[in-house]
Input
Amino acid sequence: MKAPDKLNRQAQKNQCSSLMRMPLPPTASHRRSPSMNQAVQESGEKLPKEFTVQMLRQQAAHHAKRGNYPQAISLLTQVINSSLSGRTPMDYNNRGLMYFHCGQLEEAIADYNRALELNPNLAAAYNNRANCYVNQGELVYALVDYDRALDLNPFHLRALINQGVTFRHLGMYREALDNFDIALAQGKLEAYIYAQRGRTHHLAGDWNWAIADYLRSLRYLNQEKNALGSLNSGIGKFVNTWLKAIIAPLTA
Output
């Protein structure tokens, strides 16, 4: 069953941008809680500079997890400004991610550029910079960066998914489906990937395939609902909307 080719390009771009805002968790190399760190600081104990930097990184990760992105930026800036030896590519990458979530795309790209100057083999920075390009409408630049990320790590799941979404936005449905097929083979994020593959079939006009993937996505979400929340939140809300768009004309 083929659908009529009526694509709202601006709506696709908006959905493409919003669906890509799946943040990679900032890394933390130790497990002390922010409250424990605060207690150590308040005790007056003099800490080695390296440990203080690690505490700042952990606190930044704590705030990022809770959506306190400006506070995370402030803490990571302290890390970056602490000393040349204390900076790492991941500090710039993680601060860039916080800027991205604040909508400060130019600042984010500048941080990803700096991360890649320090480590040209950092696949995460290429993926994250590509996400910024998508939000700026620079889809060709985005595809190049996703390719770089995948050249460095062919199993980079987020780059596979994000590049697939970008291919779809450009009408490159076969390429998008190939990406989603490879991503599904990793056995992770199945609900999200089936949703994206279903959407690709939907826009390509293959409604039967789309319905099958949407239902698979909802089944995975239902199995994981205790961990991921309601089917009406996140990707589940998109899937339900897309599924209704197919079924409604058939039942009218």
The radius of gyration is 20 Å. Residues 9-188 form a domain with the Serine Threonine Protein Phosphatase 5, Tetratricopeptide repeat fold (CATH 1.25.40.10). Residues 123 and 149 are 4 Å apart (CA to CA).
